[in-house]
Amino acid sequence: MIGLKHAIFFLSFVYVHADCPDGWHHYSASCYYISKNVHLSWPEASSDCKALSANLAVVDDRDTLNFLFTKINPSHQKPQNGVCQTNADYWIDGTDQVVEGHWIWATFSNPIEGNFWCPGNPSNSGGHEDCLEFKDGHWNDDVCTTPQPFICEMEYPGGGQTIIG
Ligand SMILES: [Ca+2]
Ligand SMILES: [Ca+2]
């Protein structure tokens, strides 16, 4: 027989379903928000993500790049004129504003590794392309003041259930 003390102990556990916020996409250990209709400069986009308790997305593996590409381009259309020829550009977290050519993920200050650059990039065109954008599932450097959509990322809040004692 379970005594009153034990019954209260069991009742004090509350199961809460933890998931990405509405409008965010769950992939692997993260939640992603794609601002399709909000166009901001890179610094403004970074601030907007932080206001959502997130940061501009750190996207440095092929699977995640592909996942985001299918979310942005659900019809899976291949760019007609070849990769990186569309104007569907989304700010992500990389920058070389501190040291030209030294690309870092701004949120964590660690060097960008991997090579998912659009052909011929980073180009630093005009001498001032210092912010990283997602373009057709690849990376491109662009002018930080350009207003355009962006992708925020936050840690996935849990495996589905959180126990609050
Ligand atoms: Ca640059
Ligand atoms: Ca470029």
TrEMBL record:
- Tell me the first and last residues of the signal peptide: 1-18
Q: Write the record's keywords in alphabetical order, separated by commas.
A: Disulfide bond, Signal
Q: What is the lineage of its organism?
A: Eukaryota, Metazoa, Spiralia, Lophotrochozoa, Mollusca
Q: Mind telling me which PROSITE patterns this protein's record contains?
A: C_TYPE_LECTIN_1, C_TYPE_LECTIN_2
Question: What is the protein's species of origin?
Answer: Mytilus galloprovincialis
Q: What is this protein called?
A: C-type lectin domain-containing protein
Outline the extent of the C-type lectin domain. Answer: 27-153
Q: Which residues form a coiled coil?
A: none
Q: What InterPro entries does this protein's entry cite?
A: C-type_lectin-like, C-type_lectin-like/link_sf, C-type_lectin/snaclec_domain, C-type_lectin_CS, CTDL_fold
